[in-house]
Design a protein that fits this description.
globular, 11-stranded mixed β-sheet, alpha/beta
């Protein structure tokens, strides 16, 4: 047996070391004596001197067979995930219009755009057609835009059909919404209470900051978002809400007032997502301020997403069994593009039979599985996977790492993930 490559450790107390293996996504706490034994002694000697420690190291894949290629294992695992057909995921842009004009939004708005009846009917046909071609157990419908609730009528038409179809075929249905939450009302909540729902709702700082970004005349959009988060939590039994805090340096300094508004929420249903505003330079963010916010969130018992390590955390656009359908029938994969236009389109939805007509030359890059040399030499690669394939294709010489953007060291990032794993076990068992 030999020591695996994709592992690291940090010292967290004078006599305590935290080891992490990204192949098995496992943590191991060792006292100084066992830590030194592991680090400085051949595996066969560890087995002879401390068989209990040796067995733990083998179980956690800290020791591996010499013939086992860890890098191939990681890349194969990622490829298998990409090819997984258990879930069919359709992202639907009901509109590219929005009732807000957030300054940092990367998308080009299309005023007055609404999904047409023939596209809605084709989406319904596609749900059936794809199931009969390759049966799936989960159907996830993600409503995006623009602001998707500007066309709630279209959402209802698709969901009502999908609910009936999934019940008839014993398929689990998930409805997913990325929304600014300003248009959510009692009628919408009453309709959605019979669905398994996921929401991503953005806060752009405390009340003062948020209301300067999300401007509606005469309306406190911050409090409206908070009220609707509570309304969803209280009235949609099967719901999960990701409160996305888009932060700059000021947001991090004023985080206490945001947490105070969220503190009474159910930790099993409401989670925090921290995302730096992309136009803000990383050098403007103090890593100590970010770590302080992360610690406060965890101390309050929130599952906190700051790009955590996860063996299944892969961009949804990487999955073969995923498609994004625009309001006009153009087809895409990635949602983080500047424009849903012909130049970025990967195909179109056939309105007669509901099939996807892919442009093969454009879509073939999504079948690739790439990695950078920097990632392949990183001990966290087994659960991080690095940048998505499309980003790597566009920036072949880019040594991008998410930690660069966060301004955190591997040691700081690892400690955050360890604390998060302990909290997850505490909440969910």
């Amino acid at each position: 047996m030999i020591k695996g490559k994709f592992q690291t450790f940090i010292q967290i107390q004078r006599d305590l070391f935290l080891h992490y293996n990204s192949i098995s996504d496992s943590y191991l706490l060792l006292d100084e004596a066992n830590h030194l034994l592991y680090e400085n002694t051949p595996s066969n000697e560890v087995c002879r001197l401390n068989q209990q420690l040796y067995q733990k190291l083998v179980a956690g894949q800290y020791y591996i067979e010499e013939k086992f290629c860890e890098l191939d294992h990681i890349l194969n695992k990622r490829m298998l995930q990409k090819q997984d057909t258990n879930m069919y995921h359709i992202v639907i842009n009901t509109t590219l219009d929005c009732n807000l004009r957030c300054w940092y939004c990367y998308e080009s708005k299309f005023k007055g755009s609404q999904i047409k009846v023939d596209i809605l009917e084709a989406i319904k046909k596609n749900i059936e057609l794809h199931y009969h071609k390759e049966a799936y157990e989960i159907l996830k419908l993600s409503f995006f835009g623009g602001e998707p609730f500007m066309n709630f009528k279209a959402i209802k038409q698709v969901l009502s059909f999908a609910q009936e179809f999934c019940l008839a075929n014993r398929i689990k249905l998930t409805a997913d919404f990325t929304t600014n939450a300003t248009l959510i009302n009692k009628n919408i909540v009453d309709y959605l209470k019979n669905f398994n729902c996921m929401f991503q709702i953005t806060l752009d700082g405390n009340c003062e900051q948020h209301n300067k970004v999300k401007v509606l005349k005469g309306i406190d959009t911050f409090q409206l978002a908070i009220d609707n988060i509570h309304q969803i939590e209280n009235n949609i039994p099967e719901s999960k809400i990701w409160v996305r805090i888009n932060y700059d340096a000021d947001t991090l300094k004023n985080i206490d007032s945001i947490f105070a508004k969220l503190n009474d929420l159910n930790r099993k249903k409401v989670y925090i997502m921290l995302r730096k505003i992309w136009q803000v330079p990383s050098c403007d963010i103090c890593s100590e301020d970010l770590l302080s916010v992360i610690q406060k969130g965890i101390d309050l018992g929130f599952i906190l997403d700051c790009y955590p390590l996860n063996p299944r955390r892969m961009c949804f656009a990487e999955y073969k069994n995923q498609v994004l359908i625009n309001f006009d029938g153009k087809v895409f994969k990635c949602s983080t593009i500047s424009a849903f236009d012909d130049a970025h389109s990967l195909g179109k939805l056939n309105t007669v039979d509901g099939s996807i007509e892919w442009e093969n030359k454009k879509i073939q890059s999504y079948d690739e599985t790439l990695s950078s040399k920097r990632c392949e030499n990183c001990p966290l690669f087994g659960t991080c996977y690095g940048a998505c394939t499309q980003k790597l294709l566009k920036n072949r010489n880019d040594n991008f790492c998410i930690l660069d953007g966060l301004g955190l060291s591997i040691e700081q990032f690892l400690m955050y993930n360890f604390k998060l794993s302990l909290l997850h076990k505490k909440i969910f068992g």
